[in-house]
Amino acid sequence: MTKSPDDDGTTGPDLPPRSGGGSGRWTDLDRPPLNVVGLRRGLVRDGGLWRQIDVVQRTGSTNSDLVARAAAGTADEGSVLVAEEQTAARGRLDRQWTAPARSGLFFSVLLRPAEVPVARWGWLPLLTGVAVATGLSRTAGVDTALKWPNDLLVTVGGEERKAAGILAERAGDDGVVIGVGINVSLRADELPVPTAGSLALAGAVTTDRDPLLRGVLRSLENWYGRWREAGGDPAASGLQETYAAGCATLGRVVRAELPGDRVLLGEAVAVDGDGRLVLATEEGVQEPVGAGDIVHVRPVVP
């Protein structure tokens, strides 16, 4: 990790960040650095969820770093770690994920939902998906959809493209670190795979990452508070209904690639109370899927 001279790994107002390779602050005028002072001023408040916001210039993985901070006792609930660039970011199934510096929002948050039974913590990635979709729709003005369990889709050229991903990891016995990666200003020639997209390519009204991050974190604070107050009950908090309403996977024929090289084909008909995707198979059986890789095969024809 490249640290600024104050040696705390954060970007301060008098210490302009540097991109990799010694480039200057304004190497890419379309991708200015985040304003950590403004983010703290807008998000950290008495009685609020967010207690500490740090922005680092470059790191391997914000998730790994925040899990380590939690283990060391140097991070409390409400800690947010943002990176201008990640070099070893991970998605589900340990897939590598890369993007140019300052082209997206790459951040992790530490949550400790003590009031919620651990059995309901599996809803946290889905809750984060709802929060990200809501925050981006309001701030960026783009239509978004959720792909179970942890992807956010946008429409580019009439096709669904993945613009964001979510990864949750346990942090000790009482915490969860949730990492979010959002493609903001990636251009077509910068996309890592043809199925990827970005807010810019989807016609976002802004690619200014400061208001986008504030919008997402405020939305996450709101949804997390509602869910926690309901004891993690997805129905009572409105989370289950809202997730289903925005989920592009429901009503589709999908292929679920499950652990143990098992493959299941069926129509996604519901998200149950445990956050599992329920598939109706050709054999007339409804089978819940709690983990696996989901591929949208085709829409269901009425």
TrEMBL record:
Its EC number is 6.3.4.15. NCBIfam families: birA_ligase (TIGR00121). This is biotin--[biotin carboxyl-carrier protein] ligase. The lineage of its organism: Bacteria, Bacillati, Actinomycetota, Actinomycetes, Kitasatosporales. Transmembrane segments: none annotated. The keyword Ligase applies. Residues 1-31 are annotated as: Disordered. The keyword Ligase applies. It is an enzyme of class 6 (ligase). InterPro entries: aa-tRNA-synth_II/BPL/LPL, Biotin_CoA_COase_ligase, BPL_C, BPL_LPL_catalytic.
